[in-house]
Amino acid sequence: MAPLFTVMQATFAPADSCSPNGGCAAANGIHGYAGPMPDSPLMSAAAVALITLAIAAVVGVGIKVLRSFRDLGTDAERATYTTLHAASRAGQHLRAGLSPVGAAKASKQLRDLLACDALAITDTATVLAWDGGHEELRPLLMKLATAVLATGRATVLPAGKVDMLGSGGTAVAPPLVIAPIRAGSRVVGVVAVANTTAGVGLVRATGEVADWVATQVELAELDASRILLMEAEVRALRAQISPHFIYNSLNAIASFITTDPERARELVVEFADFTRYSFRRHGDFTTLAEELRCIDRYLLLERARFGDRVQVHLQIAPEVLSTVIPFLSLQPLVENAVRHGLEAKEGAGHISITARDDGAYAEVRIEDDGVGIDPEHLASVLAGHSDGDHVGLRNVDVRLRQVYGDDHGLVIETAPGEGTLMILRVPKSQPGNAV
Questions:
Q1: DSSP string computed for 161-204
Q2: What is the C-alpha separation between 424 and 435, in angstroms, rounded?
Q3: Which fold has domain 77-222?
Q4: Fewer CB within a 10 Å sphere, N or C end of the chain?
Q5: pLDDT digits over 110-162, tens only?
Q6: What whole-number distance in Å separates Cα of residue 188 and Cα of residue 214?
Q7: Where does residue 288 rank: exposed (0-12), middle (13-18), buried (19+ CB within 10 A)?
Q8: Alpha carbon distance 208, 231 (integer Å)
Q9: Distances from the Cα of 414 to the Cαs of 250, 313, 366, 368, 370, in angstroms?
């Protein structure tokens, strides 16, 4: 049987080879290799022209690329980048305020920025940092800066001899520019620059640098105020827990002392654990797991008082248990559900607590089927225009916004007689928030 496919192979023969019958390979339809072609002046000229055109094209592209790099790296652009880079690096060191360590690191960047012989940063009492030469002037700087600290006005001291503070000697000082660091209405220090010449440009630049340092100080003070406010909010939450919950819990425990001593003993342990967690003095953050343990103890104590009137359903995703959240950010929500949702409701009430993984976030939902809240009253509470009931909700909402931004405040859905749903979403990754 013949094969389905036949492979045909042609044998190429030299052009001058012919078959015995006098037929040549070319005549049979197969063109062979005819050997090297003779040189042609026209072909050589064309090849040279093509090579020349290719080289010209490459050179043209290279010139355009070099021009584009030069356009992207003009002297003005390089100067702008250098200035911004130095300011950025110095700002990182001053974010904690005027401290010797931060000022010492920032002064190196700022001296490079001003291109001066020496630069110093002080607070109102001492020289925090001195970078560059003329170190002999360092002990004299606070005396020389007295007027600037008192009046808040920059000054330029001309070159000349200065007394060495009772040592009997003198030193030759270069021109010295001293500019105040004003944080709000207060002068908190100075920036002093020593240079062989002190023209108008250096004087103005020193003033701008001092104002920039003042901005960093104000940002540091704002951060400190934010932390203090968060601590005050936590203290306020603890104060709210104290009178109402503690009184009711102790009464519930007392009611079991004679009828069920073992139950009373267990409740005392739960009460101690709950208060120990709630009134701890360290850390602004905790984990979702710890907060849920606190809620579990809280609900055990409340069920000792309400019995089967409080039904709780939990659905917690294990992968979110390690998520960092602000301390006491869930317990007040559950307490609100019990006190203002179920306590005023007839019959049994249900609370559902759900924590789930939502991509980069952990989402916690706390829902009750209680009496609900009037939306207008709730809006007034969250805006800080109403005291009394539900203030724990505002406290939690404010702290969430302070830590994560306005997009991460509480989401509350409620209406009279329709129960209340409270939702909070926090990032699962929070490198800056330590437990």
A1: EEE-TTSS-EEEEPPEEEEEEEETTEEEEEEEEE-S---HHHHH
A2: 19
A3: Beta-Lactamase (3.30.450)
A4: N
A5: 888 888 999 999 998 899 999 998 888 888 889 889 999 999 999 988 887 66
A6: 8
A7: buried
A8: 35
A9: 32, 19, 12, 10, 10
Q: Letter for the amino acid at 231?
A: E
Give me the residue label for tokens 């330029």: 156
The fold adopted by the segment(s) 260-427 is Heat Shock Protein 90 (3.30.565)
- Cβ-contact 291, 396 below 8 angstroms: no
Strand partners, 24: 18
Domain boundaries in the chain? 77-222, 260-427
Greatest extent of the chain over all pairs of C-alpha atoms, in Å: 132
Judge contact between 108 and 131, C-beta under 8 A.
yes
pLDDT in tens, 199-226: 888 889 889 888 888 888 888 877 777 6
Which residues touch 284 (CB under 8 Å, ≥6 apart)?
A: 227, 230, 231, 234, 326, 327, 433
Q: How far apart are CA 402 and CA 428, in angstroms?
A: 17
Structure tokens at 316: 């917690």
What gap in Å lies between CA 175 and CA 158, rounded to an integer?
5
The Cα–Cα gap between 181 and 148 comes to 10
Backbone angles phi, psi at 217, to 5 degrees: -65, -45
Tell me if 321 sits within 8 A of 289, measured CB to CB: yes
Q: How far is 213 from 343, CA to CA, in rounded Å?
A: 55
